[in-house]
């Protein structure tokens, strides 16, 4: 990546995860992210990096986590030296299709911020439209305030957030948006709001309230996984379950994923979630095959064959 750092005109930080040419745009000097021995003082960062290392792709998020860690750490050093420090709003927006790791990354960010005393608890409250929107005037504002109260000290993660703006002017979703905007300002250092959803829909959602766009200084873009990344995800799932693919099964799965990615609507393909569903169904199919064959030797117990693979219709 020749120019990994670039500032967008709207002042947002733009991060692209697990893509072939990943781009990280952040208004801070580039920080060396090479592998180094970390002292005990930086065990927090090492622990989070180790967890991120178990995820497929995510190269730019790993760099961004280290940069955020450095910013918070150096701010504490500046404060100890009597220098000026400022609290930065850390509300975020995650854009991408289903199954691209958005919820997983949100949980890790909460854990990091808790360990660094940015958040008092670091827990994750997951919500969707039905959790915020009520049935009568005033009900929505109360439901939204209740969710924010539960998220104090942690992260409020709203998936498919664009659905709050789909009902038009008379829909109670607008009331939820207005309540969120108010509390993002009033309690901006008490919790972090992460809105997630498809890229195009999220761009439209931002246009519904003039106060929304400026309140999300950090934007993550989660591209779809490549075929090889999906295969890596599948193999890691199988290893964890103590299974393996035969050569024919591996070839069949790779060919299927390549076909699905080229023929499916990207917004309807669930990436890692799709692979997980295939693995789980195939494990059950293998169990039925072995039961019928009365074949229970160790090699057969751990091997998924091409005939065992079950793909969604």
From TrEMBL:
Residues 88-224 form the AAA+ ATPase domain. InterPro entries: AAA+_ATPase, AAA_lid_6, ATPase_AAA_core, CbxX/CfxQ, CbxX/CfxQ_RuBisCO_ESX, P-loop_NTPase, Spore_V_K. Keywords: ATP-binding, Nucleotide-binding. GO terms for molecular function: ATP binding; ATP hydrolysis activity. Coiled coil: none annotated. It holds the Pfam family AAA. Belongs to the CbxX/CfxQ family. NCBIfam families: spore_V_K. This is Stage V sporulation protein K. It comes from Heyndrickxia coagulans.
